[in-house]
Specification:
Elements lengths: L1 H17 L7 H16 L5 E2 L5 E5 L2 E12 L2 E8 L8 H14 L3 E4 L4 E9 L2 H5 L2 H20 L7
């Protein structure tokens, strides 16, 4: 049930944050197509979701690749996944855990109102720049996912 909640929450975030991506330039569409083909060639089963992002599953978890419509030279691309679901979600604890992880991880943990996401963003001139580091990004995201619970449970907040 928690996994379903995570998937739905992350999907809602992806929809809400990227619904304008239907208006990609030809260059952005070409980059998205190249990234899509890279994922397919790497053994994933990517699809284009309702807001134009590439959705795929890695290690049983939903992920998205988002090509920003605002940047064109270089392009701005984000790889995103949900952070772990935590009982009794506390925004301040998530914020603290994110701050701790953001100090030493090459990904960003972003707290939202009811859940958190883990993402890595980079500027690219061509898809091959991302494909060179893609598997390392997934590895670091997985590590941040695992470390998130520890940081969340050990967050020291003012007044505690």
């Amino acid at each position: 049930m928690k996994r379903l909640f995570l998937f739905l929450a992350a999907a809602l975030f992806a929809f809400g944050s990227a619904n304008a991506q239907k208006d990609l330039t030809p260059g952005q569409e070409e980059l998205r197509s190249e990234l899509f083909n890279f994922l397919r060639g790497s053994g994933y089963a990517p699809s284009i979701d309702s807001d134009g992002d590439i959705a795929f599953e890695a290690n049983g978890n939903p992920h998205w690749v988002i090509v920003s419509e605002t940047d064109t030279d270089p392009y701005y691309v984000t790889v995103m996944r949900a952070a772990p679901f935590v009982d009794n979600y506390n925004y301040d604890r998530v914020l603290h855990a994110g701050d701790e992880l953001n100090l030493y991880k090459t990904v960003k943990v972003e707290p939202l109102d009811e859940y958190a996401i883990i993402k890595s963003s980079l500027y690219l001139y061509k898809a091959s720049s991302m494909t060179d580091v893609f598997f390392k990004i997934l590895e670091v995201m997985d590590n941040a996912y695992d470390d998130f619970i520890y940081e969340y449970n050990n967050a020291s907040l003012c007044g505690e």
